[in-house]
Amino acid sequence: MMIVMKEGASQEQVDAIVAKVESVGATAHVSRGELMTVIGAIGDREHVANLELDGYPGVDHVTPITKPYKLASLQFRKGRHSVLDIGGRRIGGEHFMTIAGPCTVESREVMLDTARIVKESGAQLLRGGAYKPRTSPYSFQGLGGEGLRLLQEAKEETGLPIVTELMDARDLEAVAEVADVIQLGARNMQNYTLLTEVGRSGIPVLIKRGLSSTIEELMMAAEYVLKEGNESVILCERGIRTFESAYRFTLDLMAIPVLKEQTHLPVVVDPSHAAGRRDWVLPMSLAAAAAGADGIIVEVHPEPDAAICDGPQQLVAEGFPDYLRQVEAAAALAGKAVPSRV
Ligand code: PEP
Ligand code: MN
Asked: Is the CB of residue 210 below 6 angstroms from any atom belonging to ligand 1?
């Protein structure tokens, strides 16, 4: 339920509505705009509806939000898409953001070499996993704390904000020291305790769509983070499981316009994990950018054939600046600003 207050409604009137909403066990989220204030009532719909807030002093109108997600809905933000600031780089609205780096932090040399190329190419954020979700327990699991230290070094040298994955709430404190954006991987999209912890941390979060999750389930995952008062959430389409086995995952490009219509949150696309092969990464990146994605998260490595994991899908770092120019041109077609050329 969304309670839209009249222009110029007083603080006392807003407080009275909040108290009413809370009196039936619901939570009130107050969003103050330049002209008007909107109160989102989250809780049992029937209880809130029974309050009949329509006639209350200061209330302009009451709109039920019929979707199960509320804070993530575009309606909640009065139809305005959010623009997030990550270490001075913006994403959302007209701002396109490229996040690039190796699959995993595997050595100092690989991390720093990649970071330099990512920086010089004009991409905005640097990625790299210190904790890796691997299908086999016998595969490389990431460098852990040492990986975080190398990310910190790359950040200090290039000034690029860092995106890195958190898999276990016990590592939150350590990850929070270096991460400008915490990545919650596809396999953890429905780890509700982890979503809640990251929500409480207040650190921006990138949530990857689960391998077999619907768009609505992705938005409900975001709702867990938003509910804790953390408004910096980026959604990521990274390919889903379908009957098709000719490539790694089916990149669901339809998710872009559908999400843009339903949520105010920025939407990025990961073409690397969907494609599984580097020569398919450019066409899918172009399609995603032209379809209106707010950004791309892509794997890049100086020598992918020698990479510890995901070698076949990682772009060769040398060709990355050229790749990025093409993606930016596609983003411009969708009306996005291209920060690296400004
Ligand atoms: C990754 O980004 O390195 C990764 C493991 O992605 P996903 O969770 O989408 O598989
Ligand atoms: Mn990977």
From this structure: no
